């Protein structure tokens, strides 16, 4: 059956005009919600939706919920760029985007329900909101909903996020492979995503048979700013009485935290990477610090918007498909802020390569 016959058959079965059916299947905005629902239901019954997966998004309005800071590039460049990615992904579709600010935790559920119950809210994107009550409400309201950089623990909603745990493990593993065993992890743990990254870091230590000691290997901050990171690194370095036990590398949770770390080391006349290497898990905001090119693992950011729209399209076309959690990998950018140590300078805490273990 060719495309024209499909449209004619759907028009006959739904009682709608051929032009209305054509506009719905093309994702045009000038169709009613009732008409779209009838056309899509009929198309699904006739098994012809599969060929539309790369076509237009078949809705007119999308609501985006995010922390208020996400709408200002000066306060949260990461989420601001995620929203730009959404806008770019929707540019090819005739879709209107509306926005609403919510707190990450203890969100305003009344405001959320008000926006969700608006007839103009046909589909929802929720960015960085960890409030499980909001996730439950979104699932109960049964509108197409995609989570971005947060997880529905009830497994009822689709989500897309960077693979924070694997990114943490990969970053720490890279430093360990470069011969660094005394790594200081400079992390902000205010969100579950950062806890996942730390879990990955600890997994890398475990794989290399190195015990992870919070007192030696972890410094936490309340935010991702450079000033707080500088103060934290300064305090840690000053607390180390045996200079031979100083870290050989610092793994920062973001570029601006890496700036703070380098600033602190520079003021104490500790060279980077000559004495201490510095690595970041971010990699978008700064290519170098004080003329030192920054080695980093790029955390997916711009791609999140495009993948969220692809998931939304899948949900529209397959409303009964099981919810999925898409995890995006990071990408290593090797520059000059990490020094490779000779293997005779470091040794694993425990070695399992003694062949006598296997003697009969």
From TrEMBL:
All copies of domain HTH lacI-type, residue ranges: 5-47
Transferase keyword on record: no
Gene Ontology MF annotations: DNA-binding transcription factor activity; transcription cis-regulatory region binding
Lineage: superkingdom: Bacteria
Keyword check for Signal: no
This protein's UniProt keywords: DNA-binding, Repressor, Transcription, Transcription regulation
Protein name in UniProt: LacI family DNA-binding transcriptional regulator
Organism: Serratia fonticola
Species lineage: Bacteria, Pseudomonadati, Pseudomonadota, Gammaproteobacteria, Enterobacterales
